[in-house]
Amino acid sequence: MSFSIFKSKIRQLLMNYHKMLDCPQLFNERDFIKRTTSFFRNRSVSHRRQSLTTQSAYIDRSPIVEFYHNTPWPNPDRREIGDILFVSKFKKGNRIVKRRAVIVQSKFTRMRQRSWEDIDTAQFYFVLKWPNFTIVSPKPKKAYTLSPSCLTWGTYAFVGPNAVNCPLYFTSTRMFRVRPSVLSQKTFNFTIRKPLGWDTSQSFLIKQITCLIGEDLLTNNSVRSFVDDLYKIACLKPDPVGEFDWNSTKREKEKGFGIVEFALSVPEITYS
Asked: Residue 180: CA atoms inside 13 Å, Cβ hemisphere, count?
């Protein structure tokens, strides 16, 4: 019963987040990023010895990555890494037993059926395949080979007034199954219909909070290093790995990239 009450409080928090996205209506992708990071700044939910705390940061510019696309020409592509990094950690007592992360690329839509002409195929290739890449801005060049194993690590989010159950999340892999010819096209059509939806906002975030989706940072050292570097770009110091100093003065500016961290803590069960 106690845990059921705690989960109900988490759901209420997420319902409030969803209502905030609906009223007033979102007007672009950056609005979605800023509202999300603003809402999850220093929130807390607790019941008895169980607690959920959130922290967030808004980076003044989105990190730019350089990689090679599957095209005939030898020049590399440069694209934004994404829009929001969700990180969650599940603690039993003082032990972190799960820690996962998801990179989200948001796409704004005013209609349920539309030609998704503004999607960038090189960026989609990057989120789908995760080739070797280098962060070229705002930090000096550093190369990464992630090899993520979780299909939900690279995820798209439809946001906007008429997106079904805004936001509606799709993994890049699922989208590729729906439109398998995307990588050879400059544009492609995509219809937002409920049967094709992978997850709504609330179910997606509940799974993220409970560490059921996303790349496992406790086993994938390459992704963990990359996530820690994104924290450093946001002026969030990993201290130590998995625990972060959020007391930074270099924060809100005009545009960029969001980081949201959920920390779910439950008591350690001991047997005498």
From this structure: 1
